[in-house]
Amino acid sequence: MAEPTPPAAAPKPRKLPRRPASTLAEKWTRMDDVDVFYRESPVRPADPRVMMHVHGFGLSGRYLLPTAERLADEFHTYVPDLPGFGRSGKRRDMLDIPDLAEAARDFMDDRGVEKATLVGNSMGCPVIIEFAHAYPERIDRAVLVSPAGGLFNQPLRRAIGQLSKDAPREPTRMARVAVPDYVRFGVPSTMRLFKALTQYPSLPRLLEMKIPTLVVLGERDPLLPHAHRVDEIASQTDSHVLVVLLEGAAHAINFSHPDQLAHVIRAFMDDRPIVTDPSWPGYARLYEVHRGKHHPAPKAGTAD
Questions:
Q1: pTM metric for this prediction
Q2: 182-223: pLDDT as tens digits
């Protein structure tokens, strides 16, 4: 008697591909034996200028995507997770500002990028300032959004209190992006990097920069001193810095106000006047707080 044929095994359910977090192409590379995750313009824009976005403290580049997406058709855009952050592999020596600036340079080397404009938020701003200090020939322009890490954020409990005030001022969906990144980054890394961040001489290095530099501040950002204090400090030297205040914004402007920030960056990149778009809601207005003596003046006939 023949043995009965066993029933066919049920097919294993196919795992659906993870939905990309962005319209930018998601890619991997390997640097110094560490896997590094990044996003890039899916189509190379006609404009040859390269723009790299640098994330903040403990975060990945994911929260920078709303602004980066709006610029990716105009500039060849990169948004990496620096080693030790986000989906990239960890390196023990990636918890100092000079180390992170070096990692940003290494990423550009890996991608064959000779020179770029760097756009940063929060901790990404000191990283860019150090990059400009250490590798001045590799940076065209700098965009510093909500710079963090100076005396105003010390000690740690004060910074935690400032972040607590900022959280309800950000879009609720920001938590879904930030919390997993912070958990992955971990407490020991947070303590080490916070110490390095607050000891870094951001302000003197910023005022020494010799490239056009845009600083964008949120009017509701509890991590930064008042804009008038920023103007007072910036006016102490003949700098290349342009400071703009965005009404209604808090700290994570790249995530909460991408249309307005992309608008400001485009104007800055082409030396056009920084003016409010009349189509914006009434709570989103721009104010030029300070224009350094050596910052390029707006080109005549270039207003929107």
A1: 0.89
A2: 999 988 888 888 888 888 998 889 989 999 999 999 999 988
Position 275 in a domain: yes
Give the total number of structural domains in the chain. 1
User: In this structure, is residue 86 part of a structural domain?
Assistant: yes
Q: How far is CA 99 from each of CA 93, 195, 304, rounded to the nearest angstrom?
A: 7, 14, 40
Q: Does residue 303 form part of some domain? A: no
Both tokens assigned to 17 = 């591909």
- 77 class by beta-carbon count within 10 Å (0-12 exposed, 13-18 middle, 19+ buried): buried
Which token pair is 243?
């400071």
Could you tell me if 38 and 29 are in contact, meaning their C-beta atoms sit under 8 angstroms apart? yes
Q: Is 108 exposed, middle or buried (0-12, 13-18, 19+ CB in 10 A)?
A: buried
Instruction: Tell which residue, 162, 121, 142, 123, has the closest CA to residue 254.
Output: 121
Residue 278 CA to residue 298 CA, distance in Å, equals 19
